[in-house]
Amino acid sequence: MINLPKLQLFLAGRWVDPADGATFVDLNPATEAELAQVAAAGAAEVDAAVAAARAQFEGGEWSRLAGGDRGRLLTRLAEAVEREADHLADLEALDVGKPRAEARFADIPQAIETFHHFAGWADKVQGTTIPLPPLNGRPQLSYTLREPVGVVGAITPWNAPTMIAAWKLAPALAVGCTVVLKPPEDAPLTALRLAELIEEVGFPPGTVSVLPGIGAIAGAALVAHPGVDKVSFTGSPEVGAEIARVAGPALRRVTLELGGKSPQLIFPDADLDALLPTAALSLFANQGEVCAAGTRVLVHESLREEVGERLAAAAAALVVGDPFDPATEMGALVNRRQLERVLAYVEAGHRDGAELLAGGARLERSGFFVEPTVFGGHNQMQIAREEIFGPVGTVIPFADEEEAIRLANETRYGLTAVVWTGSLSRAHRVAAALRVGKVWVNGWGPPDPRLPWGGVKTSGIGRELGVAGLHANTEEKVVSVVL
Ligand code: NAD
């Protein structure tokens, strides 16, 4: 068994307790037992971490490193995470309640890939030269410099804490920013292990601080801090809006990666046998606690019954239980609040007259387990309009392609969509018509660090990952020279 002592803050290269001695309890959602007492940062620790990050950014050892040297540190970090992959998967499963096999297969490799990918960018952050006509008869040279935005305040959610920490750390560090990371109070363990690895591979002290703490205290202090140049946030639209409200008047840069209510569009020309396992995965992976979960299953009316039955059978067949049992396919929800939220949405489904096709109940055992759940319903129901962030999908019929697109776009969210079709023309036609940040055609999986990631409408502002995510941590300065 993993022995977790009282955990401290990683502040400016040192392991410390907060000045006021505050802690919070981290629970194992699969057993409801206490996992660890974790130090909770307050405004004083945020202040000290931002000051250390600023000192490294403005003239510190970090600011003097060449891109290649930053890249080598990131590569060493990727290799350390790779070495520690088993342990990190254990921590992720303990903290989040997800199957340990899923963490080992998806979350941790994605984090490793993200560090490797952005390590390669560190010495390739380039501006451009722009040809201009002569000015008053004299030739001109204009070029741009991509400069790091400065101190990044990074705030992460609990559903994929290792992977999303890597999404924030890797591109910011690659371009030369410094980072103060506030991990989620429900799942701080892997971020603290990452902090130990950051220390081990030799990032200059203060380049990265990791400050677990309560969102409304440590998170809010980071967002409001005048020494933070950019806030990179992943979480709920409600907290995202609060961050925008605070950062707006200060004209602080923000990237907001928020929720989703993503559609899967199943057309009559799709290969049902091939798609159904992945369609079910996109509903139930990570207990449905996935921002890109395909929770609105829009299906041609001729297939509504068959798809409903087969998704219900897939749900009923899923092995739900102990995250550390290799046979487990779905684990526990992250906490009691999330459990109650999911069960309340099941109630809302019943109230709105949705047809329960599978699941719908809490498991009779300790831990926050619910059955994978499938409803038949329509797009106006509360379960189809609001993000549940649990293993609940709604199968919704459409009559033709036009209606499918209308229903898919009839939501306040716009993160992702999946198009299931055998027609190349339809795939591209529908992909172009969907108002989302990412369209999958005949597949679904975690974001790839090489591709930009983010949403439109309530799903967020800006992009992380890909070249866009790299550039989101920079400012483009123009230099114009009259020769
Ligand atoms: P949350 O918004 O409750 O918390 C996210 C983080 O914000 C936590 O670290 C929390 O401590 C912090 N926080 C809370 N209040 C704060 C405040 N006032 N100021 C600053 N920080 C504060 O979200 P959650 O419940 O952890 O995560 C679930 C949400 O995240 C869902 O809506 C989900 O869709 C979204 N999500 C989005 C993506 C994406 O890439 N778009 C990925 C994963 C999760």
How does this structure look, described?
- With 483 residues, the protein is an alpha/beta fold.
- The chain has two domains: 276 residues, Aldehyde Dehydrogenase, Chain A, domain 1 (3-Layer(aba) Sandwich); 173 residues, Aldehyde Dehydrogenase, Chain A, domain 2 (3-Layer(aba) Sandwich).
- Helices cover 39% and strands 20% of the residues.
- The strands form five sheets. A seven-stranded mixed β-sheet has the order 14-15-16-13-12-17-18, sandwiched between helices. Strands 9-8-7-10-11-19 form a six-stranded mixed β-sheet, sandwiched between helices. It has a three-stranded antiparallel β-sheet with strand order 5-6-20, with no helix packed on it.
- Strand 7, helix 5 and strand 8 form a beta-alpha-beta unit.
- Helix 2 crosses helix 6.
- It is globular, with a radius of gyration of 23 Å.
- The termini are far apart.
- The model has no long low-confidence stretch (mean pLDDT 97).
- The site of nicotinamide-adenine-dinucleotide has 30 residues, from helix 7 and helix 8.
Summary tags:
Aldehyde Dehydrogenase, Chain A, domain 2; six-stranded mixed sheet; globular; alpha/beta; seven-stranded mixed sheet; 2 domains; 483 residues; 15 helices; Aldehyde Dehydrogenase, Chain A, domain 1; 20 strands; binds nicotinamide-adenine-dinucleotide
Write the layout of secondary structure elements.
Layout: E1 9-11, E2 14-16, E3 23-27, E4 34-39, H1 43-57, H2 67-83, H3 85-96, H4 100-121, E5 129-130, E6 140-148, E7 151-155, H5 161-175, E8 178-182, H6 189-201, E9 208-210, H7 215-224, E10 230-234, H8 237-247, E11 253-257, E12 263-266, H9 272-284, E13 296-300, H10 304-317, H11 336-351, E14 355-358, E15 373-376, H12 382-385, E16 392-398, H13 401-409, E17 416-420, H14 424-433, E18 438-441, E19 460-461, H15 466-471, E20 474-482
Parallel strand pairs: 7-8, 7-10, 8-9, 10-11, 12-13, 12-17, 13-16, 15-16, 17-18
Antiparallel strand pairs: 1-2, 3-4, 5-6, 6-20, 11-19, 14-15
